[in-house]
Structures are given as structure tokens and as C-alpha cells.
């Protein structure tokens, strides 16, 4: 199923590089590769809820988040969604399909209005033909995904539910945090079901932890928005384990 590709917009090269340089992976690319990526890529605007691709779709490109966010998830046979991660500005995705030419492994849906840098599969192949070293960098990008997956698996095995939730909230605050007079507001709409699937627990357990932490004055959670008011207390929950 072909998904909408978004409206093409323009950013200056300076604006584009300022966002992409927040990725340490991108900063490790040789200058000639960076220049070619900028030359070949397009920038597309997606509206909240737009699907970039579904699990099983043909892999049509490599993407970088420039603004907004992308939710990576999959649906079970019962229609239940399992959220794996949220991608912040500077994050790249789609490398698996570019390496093995197979179908997409998950759904990817934008959260809020989102700008993506898009390299079509043809453009990626052009880069690989011109500069075979790009295979190495795609492999390194994939390694980051694998390491992140191992970290999540270790957390699920070794950390308590409270520690896992606190660690994920701090991670989201670092990626999407917006200054607030009472702390740091996570700039994403987060359902308790989403948080439950991310850390492998139940919505009821998430609700209890959030209510407890709100009573302690560590957070304020209302209408899918979470304000971090005491990040040090949350960090201590997983640093102590």
C-alpha cells in the first residue's frame, strides 16, 4: 500500500545541517557524503497521524526526522498496538530495508506536524554505487538500533517497572522536553497504553505509578501530557538499581 509522501518544502542548507548535526552518526559521515545526501534528498511535511509506511510495505527510502516525531509500532492480530520507540529530530530510520531490500518491519506514523528528510531507495542506491563506504555507515546506523533494542531488553529484565518508567520519561524529556515554569514538559501526547507497551507492563500499573509520583510532586500528568517536575528523583529510581 502506497502511503502519502507529504508536501515538498524547502529549508536552507544551513538550517538543514543544523538539525542533522544533532545526530552523532551523521557527524561521522565524510563531508562528500554529507554534500551528496543534501543534494539528493527532499524535505517533506507530514500532518499529525499520517502514516509513512506500514509493516510489510515495500521499503521506499531512508528518512531523517527534522521536526516533530515519528512513532514506530506494530499491530497484533487482536488490533492491539505495540509501541517500540519514538524518534526525535535528528533520528534516522529505514536503514534495514535499504540494506536487505525487504519489506518494512514496523509501522511508522508521525506525531504532531512533522518534517522529514527523505532519500528515495533510488537515491540511496546512487549513494551506495558512488561511495560503497556508505554501506559501512548504514550498518553502523543499524548497530545503533540493535544496541538500543538490547538496552530495552536489559531494562525489561533487570529493572523494576518504576525504574523502567522513570528512565523512559527522562529519555523522552531529553528528546522532546520543552521549558516550563514548573519543570520540563514532554512535547508529545502520550497515552498510558503507549507507555505500557514501551516498558512491557499494563496500563493500570502505569496509572498507579503516575498517580503516586504526582502526589509526591515529581510529575504532573494531565490529558496525555506529562510535566517533569523533579527529574533527579526519577533518575534516582533507576540509578539505584
From TrEMBL:
GO-annotated cellular components: cytosol
Q: Which residues form the HTH crp-type domain?
A: 159-232
Q: Which SUPFAM superfamilies match?
A: cAMP-binding domain-like, Winged helix' DNA-binding domain
Task: Cite the entry's keywords alphabetically.
Answer: DNA-binding, Transcription, Transcription regulation
Keyword Protease found: no
Looking up InterPro entries in the UniProt record yields: cNMP-bd_dom, cNMP-bd_dom_sf, Env_Response_Regulators, HTH_CRP, RmlC-like_jellyroll, WH-like_DNA-bd_sf, WH_DNA-bd_sf
- What sequence ranges are listed for the domain Cyclic nucleotide-binding? 25-128
Q: Name one GO molecular function term.
A: DNA binding
Domain of life from the UniProt record: Bacteria
Q: Mind telling me which Pfam families this protein's record contains?
A: cNMP_binding, HTH_Crp_2
Descriptive protein name:
cAMP-binding protein
Amino acid at each position: 500500500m502506497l502511503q502519502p509522501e507529504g508536501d515538498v518544502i524547502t529549508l536552507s542548507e544551513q538550517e538543514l545541517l543544523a538539525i542533522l548535526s544533532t545526530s552523532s552518526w551523521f557527524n561521522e559521515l565524510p563531508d562528500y557524503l554529507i554534500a551528496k545526501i543534501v543534494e539528493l534528498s527532499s524535505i517533506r511535511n507530514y500532518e499529525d497521524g499520517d502514516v509513512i509506511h506500514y509493516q510489510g510495505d515495500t521499503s521506499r527510502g531512508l528518512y531523517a526526522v527534522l521536526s516533530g516525531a515519528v512513532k514506530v509500532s506494530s499491530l497484533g492480530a487482536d488490533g492491539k498496538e505495540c509501541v517500540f520507540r519514538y524518534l526525535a529530530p535528528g533520528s534516522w530510520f529505514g536503514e534495514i530495508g535499504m540494506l536487505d531490500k525487504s519489506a518494512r518491519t514496523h509501522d511508522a506514523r508521525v506525531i504532531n506536524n512533522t518534517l522529514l528528510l527523505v532519500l528515495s531507495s533510488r537515491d540511496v542506491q546512487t549513494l551506495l554505487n558512488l561511495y560503497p563506504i556508505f554501506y559501512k555507515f548504514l550498518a553502523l546506523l543499524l548497530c545503533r538500533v540493535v544496541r538500543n533494542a538490547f538496552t530495552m531488553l536489559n531494562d525489561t529484565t533487570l529493572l523494576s517497572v518504576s525504574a523502567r518508567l522513570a528512565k523512559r520519561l527522562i529519555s523522552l524529556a531529553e528528546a522532546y522536553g520543552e521549558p516550563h515554569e514548573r519543570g520540563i514538559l514532554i512535547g508529545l501526547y502520550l497515552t498510558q497504553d503507549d507507555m505500557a507497551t514501551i516498558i512491557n507492563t499494563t496500563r493500570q500499573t502505569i496509572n498507579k505509578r503516575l498517580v503516586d509520583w504526582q502526589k509526591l510532586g515529581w510529575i504532573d500528568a494531565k490529558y496525555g501530557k506529562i510535566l517533569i517536575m523533579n527529574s533527579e528523583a526519577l533518575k534516582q529510581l533507576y540509578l539505584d538499581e
